[in-house]
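Schema walk-through. Below, the input block comes first and the output block second. Nothing else is stored per chain. Lengths vary across the set, and this one has 325 residues.
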Amino acid sequence: MYAYIVRRLLYAIPILVGVNLITFVLFFVVNPPDDMARMQLGMKRVTPEAIARWKEAHGYDLPLLYNAGEKGMARLTRTIFFQKSVRLFLFDFGRSDSGRDIGYDIRQRMWPSLLIALPTLVLGMLVYVSFALLLAFFRGTRLDLGGVVLCVVLMSISALYYIIVGQYVIGKVMRLLPISGYDHGWLALKFTLMPVLVGVLSSVGASSRFYRSIFLEELGRDYVRTARAKGLRESRVLFRHVLRNALIPILTNVVAILPLLFLGSLIMESFFGIPGLGSYTIDAINRQDFAIVRAMVFLGSFLYILGLLLTDISYSLVDPRVRLS
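--- output ---
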């Protein structure tokens, strides 16, 4: 077990290094510091002196990979690659191009993102799996057909439509919840309830249809026929045996959502005015603050790899056929 975890962690290192290198190439080779300075200064005619001052103030005046003017290890450490990319492996995110501490911003903004993402994940899984089990239980009936049609209709509607309709109906017409904004403490719940409801509703169609397909596939297995031959009720077969054996694909689907638990939803937080990491990333893109974007790309990659590791470990807990050596 421990050897398996160590191997998976060692496999993750080259992946993170590769993501870091690709990010570095995109930000500093394709888009050199001189171009970044021109975009940040926002002038049509920027003097070379102004560009040099901006690069020096933000640490972009160093060589990219190798500093021939230094001695010893400083030839490698006194470079843009080390200062802006290698330090990310120590979770030293540095400062944004506007001068803010990125690590501090992440620690402050992660809580609003979690306050939306965690309830959305838990409530969503309960709704999606329960609805999919209901359709699988009544498979081949009018209820199943109506449920599938409903899922297809919900899948065909854009997520933006749910946001706009939710803000108009719940916020403006019924006046049950605020349209946008955020507050701290228990008052934050009234601002996050609508994003949670919209997040769950917007994914009901795709997720329920996906889980229904998984359950129907499991219902054709040999162990299901054996359980029925033993005289077990259909509800017991479905909820105890089929659901348990379908946990592996369910967990695999959940792992794609894990980075969003921390990084937040880009669209949802922007529309509802939630000061989470999703809106933080969108604001950084709009301001062309590449230091924040690099940090968020690295953090997202790290969380996704961590989610894959946790998923592999959980396989052994939900399925006795999986053994970790």
